[in-house]
Amino acid sequence: MKKLQQIGSGLNAYKVNFNPSLLTALQTMFDEVLKERLNREGYAYLFTGMEQINIQMKFDDLQFHVTSYGTAPLLWISNNNAHTYALFKSFMDELDIMDDIKELVDFENKIEVYCGFFVVGKKMDRETWHKDFQDGANAYTLITPLFELDESHGQLMYKDETSATKVHEYKMNEAVVFGDGFEHATQPYPETDNLRVMLSFTFGTDKVEHWPVLKQTIGEQSNYMILPCGHEKGSCQCVLD
Ligand SMILES: [Fe+2]
Ligand SMILES: [Zn+2]
């Protein structure tokens, strides 16, 4: 393990530092197209967390799918075409952690990046404890602030190996990477004017035999995604739905 540093003993969770330049293109993308749209009055309902949301946002070549599960005031804004996916994926290519990830998952040739997201909120009113993956998913989540968080914005709550609750403070230019077994929640925070914007990815095994476990978590998180076989979801027969 060369780059990833475990965040606590016995935990399937790691941190890694990266050069600020890796974020520039995605910060510009968010600032130039999404920010204004999300701050429109007509879109205030997106942030209430009261209803299931599935909408598209298109800006010429840049296309996004916006999902909220209706269980917490959090928007999952995912790449919704190949062009936008490629811009997200550049971050993962430059981060260059896949040799470390290969020590953690069962894979054939490479680690696939399934999907990129902006995870956006303005408040969190409860602790929604969960694990991102079923055991044996052979996949990971990466999360890092896209912009400096406000003092009041929620940090990452997690359970350590004794099941005690701990808080990991998000830092700019430091990503947290975690897989199955890691129980966590966004720390609740009061409503803020400034959007809390995180950059997130799902990635992992290229073996289709793990898809049945994997799809239980990531199958419906986005509209566009790359499957373990390397093809866009819905475009091939490699996996059974
Ligand atoms: Fe999570
Ligand atoms: Zn395929």
CATH class placement: Mainly Beta
β content, as a range? 25-35%
- CATH superfamily label: q2cbj1_9rhob like domain
SSE string, helix = H, strand = E?
EEHEEEHHEEEEEEEEH
Low-confidence stretches: none
CATH architecture: Sandwich
Overall pLDDT score: 96
Spatial gap, N to C terminus = 34 Å
Would you write up a description of this structure?
- The chain is α+β, with helices and mostly antiparallel strands and 241 residues long.
- It has one domain: q2cbj1_9rhob like domain (Jelly Rolls, Sandwich).
- Helix content is 17%, strand content 30%.
- It has four helices and 13 strands.
- The protein has helices at residues 24-38, 82-95, 98-102, 211-218, and strands at 5-6, 13-17, 52-59, 62-69, 75-79, 112-121, 130-131, 139-145, 156-159, 165-168, 174-178, 183-186, 196-204.
- It has a nine-stranded antiparallel sheet. The chain has a four-stranded antiparallel sheet with strand order 7-12-9-10, with no helix packed on it.
- β3 (52-59) and β4 form a beta hairpin.
- The longest helix has 15 residues, at 24-38.
- It binds fe (ii) ion and zinc ion (ZN).
- Zinc ion (ZN) is lined by residues 227, 229, 231, 236, 238.
